[in-house]
Amino acid sequence: MTEKRTGGRILVDNLVAQGCDRIFHVPGESFLAVLDALHDVPAIDVVTCRQEGGVGFMACADGAMTGKPGVAFVTRGPGATNASIGVHVAMQDSIPMILFIGDVDRGMRDREGFQEVDFPAFFGPICKWATRIEDAARIPEYVARAWNVAQSGRPGPVVVALPEDMLCDVVEAVDRPEVAPALQSPNPFDLDQMFDLLDAAERPIAIVGGAGWDAETGEDFARFAERIGLPVAGAFRRQDSIPNSSPVWAGNLGYGPNPKLVQRIKDADLLLVVGARLGEATTDGYTLITPDHPGQKLIHVHPDPNELNRVYLADLPICARPFEFAVAVAAATEEEEDLPTFAAAEANAEWVEWNTPKPRDVPFDLGQCVVAMRERLPADTIICNGAGNFSSWWHRYWPYAAYPSQLAPTAGAMGYGVPAAVAAALRSPERMVVALAGDGDFMMNGQEMATAVQHGANLLVLVIDNSAYGTIRMHQEREYPARLSGTTLHNPDFAALGRAYGGWAETVERTEDFAPALERAMAQTGLRLLHLKTDVEIITAATTITAIRNR
Questions:
Q1: What integer best gives the mean pLDDT of the chain?
Q2: Which position among 15, 47, 50, 430 has the lowest Cβ density within 10 Å, counted as fewest Cβ atoms?
Q3: How far is CA 78 from CA 216, 267, 336, 356, 444, in A?
Q4: Quick check: 213 and 258 in contact, CB under 8 A?
Q5: Same domain for 37 and 136?
Q6: Beta strand pairing status for 22-25 and 70-74?
Q7: Spans in the chain with pLDDT lower than 70
């Protein structure tokens, strides 16, 4: 299309051209021209949120669901800084996302005008590319490039500032067709070397996660690992990379992993790491696997050449997307008969034992709540959570059956669960979606329940309330036993709050009451909330406050 249009119209037309079908936003006067253009474009679903942090998290979660950029619009200054948390999560989680920011007029720049921020400078360190569009005629070029940068190599966020007056300019522009990320297939020579290293190994293990996974990738990689009996562990909060029902699944790394899996990592003579960066959480502060990993060979598969050998010495670096790599290794072992066999069955049995909740003699046992959920909810339920000790029960006990089914920030951001669940419910209305949130975590973005109700999202929210910032309380008790300072919370009636937003809600205070309450919740539609009142003494799935103090 080349006839004259406003910059706002050109932007919207080119979002449609790139395949965008949904945006998340809080409206601002700085991009009114975009909102006006969206009025006539039913192809894009406009999701109106209640705070820009929720906008950023929803766009990030939508990108995780689709593998294409989640799109967010916010206004300048406080709108953009509120949304920055979503950009940070998308960067650390390797999620494609584009944040558009309405900016001050071009003629007002550098005067510290109303809500003015230098956005390329502000966002540059936490995204793949931060830019500003000065010429409305170049909007198609910038949108296509942003789409490509967000998806290519290691996926991540792009930030685009939109001067308000530029969006009102009426110009001619040539729209660009949809761009697709380039294929990144492994070199056959690299695959030969990889199989030689596997042949020579005695105790190999794979670690999967990070950038560029989808359902087909997980199935192909699982098929390859099953052919050779290779144990497969998930990086931190990437437990859905392959179906946990696979006989090679060995469990997850991160906070509170199975000690037997930790020992397997330590004892391994070969690590096949696919997609994961081997970040701080996955490696227990770069100690479980050290950057030089003496006594261990490392095959590191990653789509970004700048990531290979950046922190970890790679004996065999392979620059490829997990998708093309998984297809290649599955095909290479499909007809081969003379294959090595490793200890996947033993590793999987250790995970099954670790993954099976044992009753605890406490008034409210979250492990048994997970048992009830496993029995009642569909296997492909999408579990969404932010940061906090409450998540440890689901990290340990929930079997992730499909991709995507774990939306959880590896960046450790609080407040992610509810907005992520809204995005997931809108993207996959046919699937069950559960938001898990601690009381502190929930209060950071619980207002997005209003977004859920307004847009007809169907989800269940579990608020795990121990009246504390539990994770910090745990660390506090370890470092300064019995010296509480700044971690106690006085909370509202979360069930009443859920009903105030227009949802169905109940409060649960005992283990035996959870399953019936869950059953009643499942009989409802729309927004449902269960307020679970727990004891801070039961601080994780594995220990108590008293035990931590007594150390």
A1: 95
A2: 430
A3: 40, 49, 58, 46, 16
A4: no
A5: yes
A6: parallel
A7: 1-2, 338
